[in-house]
Structure formats: C-alpha cells, structure tokens
Amino acid sequence: KAGVTQTPRYLIKTRGQQVTLSCSPISGHRSVSWYQQTPGQGLQFLFEYFSETQRNKGNFPGRFSGRQFSNSRSEMNVSTLELGDSALYLCASSGGLAGSYNEQFFGPGTRLTVL
Amino acid sequence: TQLLEQSPQFLSIQEGENLTVYCNSSSVFSSLQWYRQEPGEGPVLLVTVVTGGEVKKLKRLTFQFGDARKDSSLHITAAQPGDTGLYLCAGARNQGGKLIFGQGTELSVKP
Prior knowledge:
The structure holds 2 protein chains of 2 kinds.
Chain A: E1 5-7, E2 10-13, E3 19-24, E4 31-38, E5 42-50, E6 53-57, E7 64-68, E8 74-78, E9 87-94, E10 105-106, E11 110-114
Parallel strand pairs in A: 2-11
Antiparallel strand pairs in A: 1-3, 3-8, 4-5, 4-9, 5-6, 7-8, 9-10, 9-11
Chain B: E1 5-7, E2 10-14, E3 19-24, E4 31-37, E5 44-49, E6 55-58, E7 61-65, E8 71-76, E9 85-92, E10 99-101, E11 105-110
Parallel strand pairs in B: 2-11
Antiparallel strand pairs in B: 1-3, 3-8, 4-5, 4-9, 6-7, 7-8, 9-10, 9-11
C-alpha cells in the first residue's frame, strides 16, 4: 500500500506571496490532517479534514486554509506569506472512523522557506 | 501552552546504554502515541497506548501509559546507533485527527 505523498518536497517563496501544498493520503483513508513543524514550536496542529469537511482546527491565523476533495486528497494554502511561516509542513492521514485511536501516518513533508 | 511536556529534550549516550524518555501532562488523553522522526522525513508511528497502566514492547523499546492516562514513558534497552532520531509523544483527546505533540527528544547514540 502506498504511503502518504506530499508535493512539492521543497519550496522557496518570498514574503507576501501565497503557496499551495498538496497531500495524497493512504488509499482508503478519509481523514487528512496538517501540521507545522518548526525548531522552536515543534509540531503544531493546523487542521483536519474528513469527508471534505473541516473537522478540527488549530490556533493558526486565517491566512492558513485547506480543503479536501472527494478522492480524499487535500491541499493547504497559505496566503500573504511571512518569514515566520518557514517550516516543514506535514500531512498525515488516518482512517478517521469512530473507535479508532487517531493513529496518524505522516508524509515526508514540504519544506517551505520564505525569504 | 505546552500540554505535553517531554523530557529530556536532548540525550547523547554510548551504544549499549539504557535510556528513558518521559512524556507528562496534566490532561487526560484517550490515547497516546509515540513516533520517531529522522531528518528530512515525517514522523513514523511506533506504538499507540490506550489503556491506563498499559505496557507495550517493541523489540528493545518498552512503552508505558500511566494509570491516569496523563503520562507515558519510552524505555530503550541497549541502545544502538540506529536508534538515533527525534522521538515524539502525541496525545489524542477525542475522535478526529488532532494530536497534541510533545517538544520531542533528540536522541544520539554513539558507537
């Protein structure tokens, strides 16, 4: 079974630009979560999508948004980039069903650098 | 507010030594997971513990969930250089994909 894939793996942008990151979950998984990882803050939850609906949301500004398509693929968008948005963005998929234990399977991440 | 306190943050040991990593919280979690992450990669799930007092073993790794489901520990016996990496604990409170991560423990095992 193929794992979680993320594209692109690396991205360099300048302040003020916007960026879209893509994630394809494990086949059959309906939940996709996004996390931001930085050396200072560690891994922080951005949001989760399940069956095309946002089910959970972290404490990030509205510049961070996402969506999920009918095939469970997800995209994350960051508008008006700031230097502090430089981070590793991780996507994780899970079955997302009742009774499961939220076990997350992570992709390799997209390394975003904002100049 | 860091809801999961992980310690130590850094650990450098010699091959063959034992070590324990702690993950503590004042909050109750429905489940707790341990991940290992290598540079340039995403975290890889090692184990999930769900029952208070539960102990799980994965070869030389032993995971324990506290009786009150607020804390957990990871013990590695006879560490090897291949164990080097960032170890992360993560707690889940309800259904859904939101995990609360500890800050991580950077482990270096020298041959």
